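Hi R.,

Here's the chain you asked about this morning:
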Amino acid sequence: MIFSPKTQLLLATGLVSALIFGSSLSTTTTPVNAAEEFQVNLPILMAQNTPVVKMGTFVKAEAPTTGMAKIVRENGQTYLELDSAFSTTDQAPDLHVLLDPDATPPKSYSNSNMNRFINLGKLHSAKGAQRYPIPSAIQTSGFKSVVIWCRMADATMGYATLK
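And here is the predicted structure, written out as tokens:
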């Protein structure tokens, strides 16, 4: 099948979007006005309308932790998203998600530094995609890592340095 140069450009744009935005893609069928003389309906890969503010890849601290963390803005609200590849230990009790001002967070949060982080709440699941709202009063520019923290043991399980 041979496509016109304009259609080829539309298909290439969708492919580039797929490579850039990875797992945050959705497939839709959208009418695309390729030129005024014709209109064509093509399946286009489109990134979801969630601009990424910062992102980072999880690394192990006390437990193997993998996947990616992203801070995104959507409809005026800021969220922390963990992607579908996210995984950490399910053996640690009372896991929480923190925003920390350091790129490499401490291994534990002693009483002297308990006010340094923002606790976004309990980890929803040890595996898979999840989303946490960030209160509007929080300036995300001041935070350089996302931390999976076991509150009971006061131990950092893993973290993602945000860039």
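One quick note: Residues 5-21 form the longest helix (17 residues).

Cheers,
M.
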